[in-house]
Amino acid sequence: MKHRGNDPSGEESFREFPGIESIHQRELRLLALYAMHSDQSRGRKHPEPDHPFRSAFQRDRDRVLHCGAFRRLSDKTQVFSARSDYQRTRLTHTMEVASIARTLGRSLRLNEDLIEALALLHDIGHPPFGHAGEDALAECLADEGGFSHNDYALTVVEQIEQRYARFPGLNLTLEVLDSQSTRIHKAEPARAPLLEAQVVEAADSTTYNAHDLDDAVKIGLVSLDELLDIPLVADCVRRVTNRFGVLSAGMLRKAVVHELIDHQVRDVLHTSLSGLATFQFANSDQARQSDFRIGPTPGLAREKAALEAFLYRRVYRHPEISRFRGQAQQMLRRMFDRLVARPKLMPDFFQQHAENVGVKQAVAHYLAGMTDGYCRRQSGKILGSASGG
Ligand code: MG
Fold first, then answer.
1. What is the SS3 assignment for 169?
2. How far is the centre of ligand 1, averaged over its atoms, from the C-alpha of 341 (Å)?
3. What is the pLDDT of residues 114-160, one digit of tens each?
4. Domain total of the chain
5. Which residues make up the environment of ion ligand 1, defined by Cβ < 5 Å?
6. Does residue 1 belong to any structural domain of this protein?
7. Is residue 317 part of a domain?
8. Does the global pTM surpass 0.90?
9. Is residue 4 part of a domain?
10. Burial zone of 347 (CB within 10 Å; 0-12 exposed, 13-18 middle, 19+ buried)
11. Paired strand residues for 37
């Protein structure tokens, strides 16, 4: 699987650009021993020569960034359907996760390129209409093991994307593929995630706690006053008020969201730095296989759970969100049934894909790749053709 041939350090490639510090030298200078260094990568399924001035993980990041599935995140629901241009989409959520994960990763001297690749990839398998869409597809595939956006992300980057002449998919490094699969098999010790993957996980929950609160209050589904029952939010409001005095409602909401992110990132950094100093890992594998995990302190984890329970009860199950969920799920279920009965209504690629993975899987893969808008537009065509038999 090694892709470097006779140049294990990657130094050879840099002879073409003598003014540039090699990736190997740069990472030795900046990264900790426990980071995943690019020259320790196990390579790609389809061997490729090194790039002259990008590390293996920089290329992974760029491959994800440039693929069609990534761009389609711009019209995929995060939690709230498009009722204004304020709330997060799956794309802006992803960018926020990448930003926070890189901040954590740089402070912990981890591989930021790998972190960014993992962050940009982490939600690429989300179907249209957020978790409502995922639940509908899981129901449609109930007799085939269900549907998971984490699993589908791997299908996207290994089978669905066709961007390179010499191989199917994006041919990402095994570290990126393995890290994504640790999101699926969280309980399996053999799949222990790299520290870079742990950082993305911590950044994901930090991000959605803060932005779901922000969007829900801005849209008016809950008020900041109601959120004062949650100690994590009440503490943020108190600190912000002590610092700035009385603020307008809008500025208070923004300051609280800022404080909520900052507080969580500081907590994760404090506990992670002291853990890493204690363990003194000599390489990324040692760190991965140990009991050490990057994440919040137990106290913050409990407070976050209380906020998430509130968001679940009062926001994700809000009647307005539930109505949107119901409509979206009904549409997806009807489209699924129709396409299973008439696979020829799918594009050629997915008709061929059905020969490899079966019709139901191929239909789910086709639907999961759609944006919210494209799915709505296609529903008219696909369901409208029902009378054709
Ligand atoms: Mg996410």
1. strand
2. 33
3. 999 999 999 999 999 999 999 999 999 999 999 999 999 999 999 99
4. 1
5. 123, 204
6. no
7. yes
8. yes
9. no
10. exposed
11. none
